[in-house]
Design a protein that fits this description.
mainly alpha
Length: 134
């Protein structure tokens, strides 16, 4: 019994916060869930620009990947909500991260460009995401 107390005391002395690891896990899962949605949407865009119209886009093998990624994000968002996160906070974090990921994908993979107003909006959005975590 004494060893348990000493072990706990060492963790406290070292400054370990027992609530930090679950929060970091939840943030990691949130990032994975948002990334899954953003990547799935990029796969939909790739299937759509392949030519052949709407029906051909639905038949694309990329659709299977998109569907699996959407299921993945449902699982992880459900876990985050069961863990007690507020919808209002998750939605803002999700929107900011999603915008960053999809904007990056649009520029890098689809040759899209951003104007000054859009870049300013990205900076403001990311600032808001950071501020929400305090």
């Amino acid at each position: 019994m004494r060893n348990v107390g000493r072990h706990h005391k060492r963790r406290c002395i070292a400054g370990a916060d027992p609530l930090l690891m679950p929060k970091l896990l939840h943030i990691g899962l949130l990032i994975l869930a948002v990334s899954a949605v953003a990547i799935a949407d990029a796969l939909l865009k790739k299937a759509a620009v392949g030519g052949g119209g709407f029906t051909e886009a639905l038949k694309s093998p990329l659709m299977i990947g998109a569907i699996l990624l959407y299921l993945f994000q449902i699982f992880f968002f459900t876990y985050i909500f069961v863990a007690g996160w507020k919808l209002s906070i998750v939605s803002i974090l999700q929107t900011g991260l999603y915008a960053l990921i999809t904007l990056t994908a649009g520029v890098l993979f689809f040759g899209e460009s951003l104007n000054t107003v859009q870049i300013t909006a990205i900076v403001l959005t990311l600032t808001g995401v950071v501020l929400l975590n305090f």
